[in-house]
Write a structure and sequence with these properties.
There is one protein chain. The two termini are about 35 Å apart. Helix 6 links the parallel strand 7 and strand 8. The chain is built from 10 helices and 12 strands. It is globular. By secondary structure, the chain is of the alpha/beta class. The longest helix is centred in the C-terminal third of the chain and has 16 residues. The chain has one domain: P-loop containing nucleotide triphosphate hydrolases (Rossmann fold, 3-Layer(aba) Sandwich). The strands form 3 sheets. A 6-stranded mixed β-sheet has the order 6-7-8-3-9-10, sandwiched between helices. Strands 2-1-4-5 form a 4-stranded antiparallel β-sheet, with helices on one face. Bound molecules: adenosine-5'-diphosphate (ADP) and magnesium ion. The site of adenosine-5'-diphosphate has 11 residues, from strand 2 and helix 1. Magnesium ion (MG) binds next to helix 1.
């Protein structure tokens, strides 16, 4: 593995009783990139994220984060990552700022107030900082959640379906936040069942289907899998949706909706 590799997954399998969820998953994520794991509901995205974040053990195969094996060096892995919605949980009674201060204190960081103010500014929450988080919109809440998980500057962040349940405006806000994170050098592994989310954000997209990665490439590479359809003189490029449906079949996509 090169130093440019942030995450490496090789032959990972996981079953729950008779249900073989992961049947040999392989991929690598380059440092500083946004990698989207795209799959329908129940494809095994969360299972994989839980394995990578040391919350769940794989049955076989290996996975490493910044060179640390998730099975043999889980503490080093935990130091390197953050996971939204798991390690960070917004307390509705506290203000946004109080939530951030609390996390900074829990992590024994110096100047928790300054860290909180910095995060509020970074995530465009300064004006709302002293309001109870319970009054925040969905997008603000998700941004606060991401901000909380980033305290301590982990080099890698896992975002498990970061925009599920958000309205279109809030999704765009969260996308912007994710882009800024990656611009700042953070490696982002996000899972999504939304094709447009992968298309908008990801440097590479891996499609998880029936327990394996059936395709992995840049958006341009994935689009090349289908010939562009010529309609009279207008060339129509296939969308990621066309590619996805051709690869996994329409039934799978319908199941996922
Ligand atoms: N702890 C568990 N026990 C039994 N089955 C599970 C458990 N966790 C997940 N599953 C099953 O594994 C499959 C994959 O789940 P999950 O990883 O959550 O998929 P996704 O996040 O892609 O929607 C689903 O069929 C789910 O019901
Ligand atoms: Mg999931």
């Amino acid at each position: 593995m090169t130093t440019q590799t942030a995450i490496r997954v090789q032959g990972v399998t996981k079953s729950f009783k008779e249900l073989d969820v992961l049947r040999g998953v392989d991929f690598e994520v380059a440092r500083g990139s946004i990698f989207a794991l795209l799959g329908s509901n129940g494809a095994g995205k969360t299972t994989l994220v839980r394995i990578l974040s040391t919350l769940l053990k794989a049955d076989a195969g290996t996975a490493s984060v910044l060179g640390f094996d998730v099975a043999t060096a889980p503490n080093d892995v935990r130091q390197s990552i953050s996971l939204t919605g798991q390690f960070a949980a917004v307390d509705e009674v506290l203000s946004g700022r109080e939530n951030l201060v609390l996390v900074a204190k829990l992590r024994h960081l110096k100047n928790p107030g300054a860290i909180a103010d910095d995060m509020l500014a970074r995530f465009s929450l300064t004006d709302a900082g002293n309001r109870r988080a319970g009054t925040y919109s969905g997008g603000m809440r998700r941004r606060l959640d991401i901000a909380m998980s980033l305290i301590g500057n982990p080099p890698i962040i896992f975002l498990d379906e970061p925009t599920t349940g958000l309205d279109p405006q809030a999704r765009i806000e969260v996308w912007q936040t994710i882009k800024e994170l990656a611009d700042g050098g953070t490696t982002v592994l996000l899972t999504t069942q939304y094709l447009d989310e992968a298309e908008q954000l990801a440097d590479r997209i891996a499609i998880l289907h029936k327990g394996t990665i059936i395709q992995n490439g840049t958006l341009a590479e994935l689009k090349k899998l289908l010939p562009s359809a010529k309609v009279e003189y207008v060339e129509k490029q296939p969308s990621l949706e066309d590619v996805f449906l051709a690869l996994v079949g329409e039934t799978a996509a319908v199941e996922g909706n």
